[in-house]
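User: I'm putting together a teaching handout on how multi-component assemblies are represented. Below are the sequence lines for each component of a complex, exactly as they appear in our records. Could you produce the 3D structure of the whole assembly as structure tokens, so the students can see both representations side by side? Please keep the chain order the same as the input.
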Amino acid sequence: MHYSEIPKTLVYLDPGSGSIILQLILAAILGIGVFVRVQWSRIKSLFGRKDNNDDDKE
Amino acid sequence: MMIKNRELLGGSFRDPSGFLFTYEGVLYRQVNQIYKQDYDLLFASGLYEKLAEKRLLVSHTEADVEAADPETVYKVIQPKRLPFISHPYEWCFSQIKDAALTTLRIQKIALRHGMSLKDASAYNIQFHQGKPLLVDTLSFETHRDGEPWTAYRQFCQHFLAPLALMAKRDVRLSQLLRVYIDGIPLDLASRLLPPSSRLNLGLLTHIHLHARAHIRYAGKDVKSAHKNRRMSRESLLALIEHLEGTVKKLEWNPAGTEWAEYYSITNYSNAAFDHKKEIIAQWMKRTSASSVWDLGANNGEFSRIASQLEIPTIAFDIDPAAVEKNYRKIKQNKETNLLPLLLDLTNPSPALGWDNQERTSLLERGPAEMVFSLALIHHLAISNNVPLERIAKFMSRVTSKWLIIEFVPKSDSQVKKLLANRQDIFDHYDQHEFERSFNLFFTIQEKSAIRESDRTVYLMKNESA
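Assistant: Of course. Below is the structure of the complete assembly, with chains in the same order as your input.
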């Protein structure tokens, strides 16, 4: 489902058009980093290493 | 339509999800129908429980009182009331930094529960028992996959811009938060930051480019122009982590300010220092006050006499370095009853914002049951030329019961220093006039000369309250 099809929740702040654009650009750049990180943790998990030091994760 | 006898809080009107009100002195939060879905998801997703377990969100109970606005109400809740509400321009560097990191940590946890922070206001964070706490239960919305973070700009204005300016330019620039109630405008932050800040990838992106994007896309409908571009949850998490890394790298260390090394250069002997502590400890036990404001607390040496008796204590000081040192000590020792805050007593925090009611003044947040005014009076009377009678009157407004005040005479080397290069226009600054002025508002219960010094400390009771 495309995100525009999900019912709107209450947004009272003006996110700012510049902030939206910048985030969408960053999403593309950061997405590469995310991809690399996911692949890397897959490789690491092949060797049985767990990568979880964040105590906020369940 | 509003019901009578409900008092709406001045700072609680922007978000249509609900609002705060008081009824018979108790604080309540009305949750509106319009917010029902998100409110229910907060519990159904397990997010509330998770945040409560980590003490990151203020706890509440559902209340059985009539709503302030029955036409729009979904539920009325009673949040745990905090002893004191502080404002971000009263925080030291590390307090703003910890508040920022807590906001991002909460956002990460929220995203894992299918929710997202819909605002990232610094005013939603309070320091409770030594740690930052989110106090707005209605800050969460259902996360819509693909959407960018609505509160990104607010986070940068409320947290990143002041922290960057404090770390890279001057720590006093936190005071811009007092002028700009919705955080420091990014174009202003960008102009004030040194050019070298552009070499910091985080600041380059989230402040400098962010500011330029605002100017370039102002008023343009970017949502429909870019409707096919999405921000995946992973990318959003990566953005939050990037902000986190940027904030973590910002550092400021207290050194070289006026008071940072105060106790090592003071004219006090060890015997005098210990004697003063002894007297105050005795009087604290005798008065059993339930709240203490230590005015001019420096790094909180004397405030701790009160906080260690488990009395909620606020250590106010004008010097960002002293407040910073105090806060770091609290963190290190996991102290729970002490809150250090930045305050210029000659110009205390005013009432600010819409209708002058959004952010309360210092006096509106008092009085305390006990006020300490130690080694302070000469700064008010001589450095700031305030007549003794006016100082006495001010003190009678900030304490409802007790005042422990130290008189520092002209013979004291600290006063001599203040008078070294200026004309002594303070003919009435002596102990006799001090007692006469304070007797107009207080009764002197006890007085004690401090050993090995010319100073006297008084225990007074407010008779005007």
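A couple of points students might notice: Chain A is about 50% helix and 0% strand. The radius of gyration of chain A is 17 Å.
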